[in-house]
Amino acid sequence: MATHTIAVFASGSGSNFEAIAEACRRGEIDARVALLVCDKPSAGVIARAERLGIETLVISPKDYSSREEYESVIADRLDACGAELVCLAGYMRLIGRVLLERYARRIVNIHPSLLPSFKGAHAIADAMAYGVKVYGVTIHYVDESLDGGEIISQRALDYDGTDEEELTSMIHSVEHKLYVETINKLINNR
Ligand code: GRF
């Protein structure tokens, strides 16, 4: 039985979600993914969660009159499942006051660049268009800003090609490993 409990928020395909959930299942992370929160009913991550038997909250902000109300529903579900750590993994929304206050320093995000360079939703394409030769991944605490917040871990990778698909897949592999290692450090230091 795992010692710790984590939740993952995702809006997209969910490869990071799956890497985290599989690492938990294999016992490489001493935690259980108790909840997936997804704000996009059509996201691929939902099928991954079903396959892995992980409870999922699919919730659209447009069904609520304010961000506060939307986030309160999520926070109540996080409380109910006893989440100690919230891992954002391609969750395409800023986190607001309600979640930041109730889960202070317990929400982390992964971003596919060496922050503070290349913030935003197109980090890999932006870095490639700029012509960088060293790419990377950052995991950071979440605050109210876009891809801001204190950095927890980073990993660089060299790439000198022009194939964005190839680079994206290399970055994803780094992400999956770095997220597992970082979650381990975070839960074991609490
Ligand atoms: C990852 O590149 C992550 O860094 C970014 O969104 C992407 C999510 O990919 N925040 P996936 O859905 O985990 O495959």
- Helix and strand run: EHEHEHEHEHEEH
- How far apart the termini lie comes to 18 Å
The total beta strand count reads 7
Poorly predicted sequence stretches spanning 5 or more consecutive residues:
none
Whole-number average pLDDT? 97
Report the portion of residues in β strands: 15-25%
Q: Please, how many helices?
A: 6
Helix/strand-derived category reads alpha/beta
Say which molecules are bound, naming each kind only once: 5-O-phosphono-beta-D-ribofuranosylamine
Using only C-alpha atoms, the radius of gyration works out to: 16 Å
Residue share in helix: 25-40%
Spatially, the strands of the biggest sheet line up as 3-2-1-4-5-6-7
What summary fits the major beta sheet? 7 strands, mixed
Spatial shape: globular
Structural account:
By secondary structure, this protein is of the alpha/beta class. It is built from six helices and seven strands. Helix 1 packs parallel to helix 2 (45-52) and helix 1 crosses helix 6 (164-188). The two termini are 18 Å apart. The structure holds 5-O-phosphono-beta-D-ribofuranosylamine. Residues 10, 12-17, 89-90, 110-112, 175 line the site of 5-O-phosphono-beta-D-ribofuranosylamine (GRF).
Structure keywords:
190 residues, alpha/beta, 7-stranded mixed β-sheet, 38% helix, binds 5-O-phosphono-beta-D-ribofuranosylamine
How would the blueprint of this fold be written?
Elements: E1 4-10, H1 15-25, E2 31-38, H2 45-52, E3 56-58, H3 67-81, E4 85-88, H4 97-102, E5 107-111, H5 123-130, E6 134-141, E7 151-158, H6 164-188
Helix pairs in contact: 1-2, 1-6
This protein binds 5-O-phosphono-beta-D-ribofuranosylamine.
